[in-house]
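Q: What does the predicted 3D structure of Tyrosine--tRNA ligase look like?
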Amino acid sequence: MTQQTESRPVGTFRSRFMQEAEARGFVFQCTDAAALDAAMLAGPVCGYIGFDPTADSLHVGSATQIMLLRLLQKHGHRPVALLGGGTAKIGDPSFREEARSLMSEDTIATNIAGIERSLRQMMTFGDGPSDAILANNADWLDKLSYIDLLREVGVHFSVNRMLSFDSVRSRLEREQGLTFLEFNYSILQSYDFRELNRRYGVTLQMGGSDQWGNIVSGIDLVRRTDSKQVFGLTAPLLTTASGAKMGKSAKGAVWLSADKLPVFEYWQFWRNTEDADVGRFLKLFTDLPVEECDRLGAFEGADINEAKKILATEATALCHGRAAAEEAAETARRVFVSGQSAASLPTRTLPRADLQTGFPAFRLFAEAGLASSNGEARRLIRGGGARLNDAQITDEGQVISLADAVDGALKLSSGRKHHILVRPEG
């Protein structure tokens, strides 16, 4: 059976979840939109999204998936966050240029603990009818017998069909190819869907559009082995208006964990949203009503900056709590409006002896992470975008040392939006 997306006029959903998911921009593909809509009208639906623990934190690119689970919970359905403690031992090859490095059991356990903290911050877990469930596919995948898996599950998979998936074909066309280990990933993800259906009554798998082939395979497996109808729903993979991949910044990944990215920098990431993305991101990454998101997104000129501040504060509140978000907003106000230094700005420590001797300005900016190289730092200074303690630097060779510190720190600024405090170690 080949699952197809359904051609359906926009705005014809009747269930509250599907109506809001569509209005906010979460609906990209659905295996049977009308039947899923009807199922949600008939009663609570249990749906899941998987998160492979490839790092000890999710990044903001995964926030779309968490927001989908939150939306499911908001409308009285039950979300399941599946941690891939088992599938992480293989690694999802979907649209990757090369194979992931294999991780140790200890690394996987550490990563799972970090991801769980973010999930618990953004959803309500418990035993209530719409409380989220946290599951780990290692609980069943680690116990599988290979021969039994081949006989019971493998017989239902067509290699020809698996080779037709875009995620597989893109790797086969590359020089490195696809390992047999990775080729098994789709089978295990399909097994997860069936197992979650049997354990928790899960009838919906959601994910990014890159997971479409894996999701359809799971639906087919449940149909073939258990004669049940289940559903798949994917959200679009996001890019910014300028085409950049969502979840990346000039400094690297935008992590959800405050241990990996200070809350202020997370707030700043959203504050720096491109004008054309404000309305769309408000709908995807905040709980503000859709109408309010549209109103704010329509602002122009200087007014759009106020909308960006609202986006930054609301998105940060979901990830780090309201108090931390308000503190980050106040820090920004003091830095950008009052020109004051703030202790909650991101901090970089450098050896005390080096700071006492001093650095040429261009090198200090590179060392502090405000420029990716000495050459970029020089260009920043020549262009008038570099400041020390809010005063413009005009000489790229100017020596900056602890003698220039204010309250024991050097405040470095790149343009109006990027600031960091440099302090001595110890």
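A (community wiki): The structure tokens above were generated from the sequence. The longest helix spans residues 105-122. Confidence is low (pLDDT under 50) at residues 1-5.
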